[in-house]
Design a protein that fits this description.
Elements: H1 13-26, H2 45-66, H3 78-86, H4 93-98, H5 103-106, H6 112-123, H7 128-151, H8 157-163
Helix pairs in contact: 1-2, 2-3, 6-7
Length: 174
């Protein structure tokens, strides 16, 4: 683990924090950033909070890959959740499918408007991770539809006839 002290170079501290945040947005490997108390002045609290949220998302991604059913997606801040979704490109299709077994991920409810917005953005080429995430969510619906289709026998015409039978008025002879 390499230690770098930006506090010894106050002229590049802000640039260093911005560059580090940009690197953390793309890189899922760095899971911990430690700062000494001397670097936490009032002007730097927002960039530091951003860095901590990004490392939080990286740690969640690492935890997810180790134990897919136990990481807590809901505990992440909204910013960290978005960053987590952006880093799903690193996941395999099997790992995405296994997200369905994680209750904190599956129980993350979306309103109809939010889902429509997500589907719109997922259709754009620059949001491939979001498209993959929606595919993982939709897999639950596909599994449920397949289960229901398997439980209803396809050759049971009598049952279908009885369920869709419409009461018609009696025929009158003229």
């Amino acid at each position: 683990m390499a230690l770098y002290s930006l506090s010894q170079n106050p002229g590049i501290l802000a640039l260093g924090l911005t560059t580090l945040a940009g690197a953390l947005e793309r890189n899922a490997s760095l899971t911990c950033v430690k700062f000494t108390p001397s670097t936490t002045d009032i002007a730097q609290t927002e960039p530091l909070a951003t860095l901590l949220q990004l490392t939080e998302a990286n740690a969640a991604l690492g935890t997810m890959k180790k134990a897919l059913t136990s990481f807590n997606f809901a505990a992440l801040s909204p910013f960290a959740q978005v960053n987590f979704v952006n880093k799903l490109d690193a996941c395999t299709e099997t790992e995405l499918r296994s997200l369905l077994t994680n209750q904190s991920f599956v129980q993350c409810k979306l309103s109809a408007g939010q889902l429509c917005a997500l589907q719109y953005y997922a259709s754009l080429d620059m949001y491939t991770p979001l498209r993959r995430l929606l595919w993982a969510y939709d897999a639950l619906n596909r599994q449920e539809a397949a289960r229901l289709a398997a439980s209803v026998p396809a050759d049971d015409d009598e049952l279908a006839w009885q369920e869709s039978l419409v009461d018609l008025p009696p025929l009158r002879s003229t």
